[in-house]
TrEMBL record:
Name recorded for this polypeptide: Subtilisin inhibitor domain-containing protein
Region feature Disordered, mapped onto this chain: 36-58
Family: Belongs to the protease inhibitor I16 (SSI) family.
Signal peptide: 1-32
Domain Subtilisin inhibitor: residue ranges: 91-176
Compartments where located: Secreted
Record carries keyword S-adenosyl-L-methionine: no
Listed transmembrane segments: none
Complex and partners: Homodimer.
Length: 190
């Protein structure tokens, strides 16, 4: 009786497959003399109590179910996924667009600090300034000493990417290009 509980738990699809397999096996002896065939297996894939670690168990009413936040564990011998692969990544896509609308095309560059790749003309200085602010262009405190005019020629600076495992999204419209360079330092000098 124990062998019948496992297929009942797995659902009607398995029972249908087992019924079709049994029907094919019943019809096989009539044609068995004409062609040799592989030996048929009519048992459950795993004996009771010897299922792999990830095999579903029947729910018993006296047991409390696992909490919804518990994650399934991989079976022994399977590689454990490494979720910290993005932790050291420091890569941002920086964009400068004229005007207040960031959907218009503008200049764009990829700033990669870890792993370092030369794509930004001032990559070393930009990575150092972003490291001090935790990867947030809006939190940078630069002391460039630039004196800017009060002309209104808006420019929008935006950044998106990952910095130490966090997703960064930044967008700010400055009144002119000089004010943007004064506020962001070497990050948007491309």
């Amino acid at each position: 009786m124990r062998r019948l509980t496992r297929p009942a738990i797995l659902g009607p699809a398995l029972l249908t497959g087992m019924t079709l397999t049994a029907a094919a096996l019943a019809a096989a002896p009539a044609n068995a003399a004409s062609a040799p065939s592989a030996p048929a297996v009519t048992s459950i894939p795993f004996p009771p109590g010897e299922e792999p670690a990830g095999w579903p168990r029947p729910h018993r009413w006296w047991e409390t179910p696992a909490p919804w936040w518990s994650a399934p564990r991989p079976a022994p011998g399977w590689p454990v996924p490494n979720h910290n692969t993005v932790r050291g990544t420091r890569q941002l896509v920086l964009t400068i667009t004229p005007g207040r609308d960031s959907r218009r095309p503008g200049r764009q560059v990829v700033l990669s600090c870890a792993p370092f790749s030369p794509g930004h003309p001032n990559a070393v200085a930009a990575c150092a300034e972003l490291s001090r602010s935790g990867g947030l262009p809006g939190a940078m405190r630069t002391h460039s000493g630039l004196v800017c005019t009060h002309e209104y020629n808006p420019v929008t600076a935006s950044a998106s990417g990952t910095w130490d495992g966090r997703y960064i999204r930044y967008q700010h419209t400055f009144s002119n290009m000089c004010r943007m360079h004064a506020a962001t330092g070497a990050v948007y000098r491309f």
